Amino acid sequence: MTDRSERTQSQAHSEGMTVRREVLSDAHVDRAEAGKTEFTEEFQDFITRYAWGEIWTRPGLDRRMRSACVLTALIAAGHWEEFEMHVRAAIGNGLTPDEIKEILLQSAIYLSVPSANNAFKHAQKVLADMGVWGE
């Protein structure tokens, strides 16, 4: 990786696209890219450069920790479609179903029991669909 202070927007986009594909999957990113319109293309570039190219590429946290943070943030905000996507990503980033369960239990205390209840419902569905947890 290049010196972060001298990276161009193009480098941030390129590195971001690599990480985005590694975390979310080629299929997901290909769908997002295929769905870009003149209206949304600047937003897609923005999230690729900043979320994926600046934040997810930083050395301070590993991907497992970043996934744990993202899951908690998405529970807090109630972004359930994104939450499901990031449960899949968390498994790919090395979190186990038991660790995800612990994150959801932790969220019950610091966010709310209803939020955690909903998170368990969504996570269980995703984990079952992935074949990594019960029914």
UniProtKB/TrEMBL annotation:
Lineage: Bacteria, Bacillati, Actinomycetota, Actinomycetes, Micrococcales
Gene3D superfamilies per UniProt: AhpD-like
Catalytic activity, EC: 4.1.1.44
PANTHER family found in the cross-reference section: 4-CARBOXYMUCONOLACTONE DECARBOXYLASE FAMILY PROTEIN, CARBOXYMUCONOLACTONE DECARBOXYLASE-LIKE DOMAIN-CONTAINING PROTEIN
The protein's name: 4-carboxymuconolactone decarboxylase
GO MF annotation: an example: 4-carboxymuconolactone decarboxylase activity
Pfam families named in the record: CMD (PF02627)
Entry keyword annotation includes Lyase: yes
SUPFAM superfamilies assigned to the protein according to its UniProt record, in alphabetical order: AhpD-like
Transmembrane segments: none
Top-level class of the enzyme under EC nomenclature: lyase
Domain Carboxymuconolactone decarboxylase-like: start-end pairs: 42-124
Keyword Cell wall biogenesis/degradation: no
Chain segments carrying region Disordered: 1-20
Keyword terms, alphabetized: Lyase
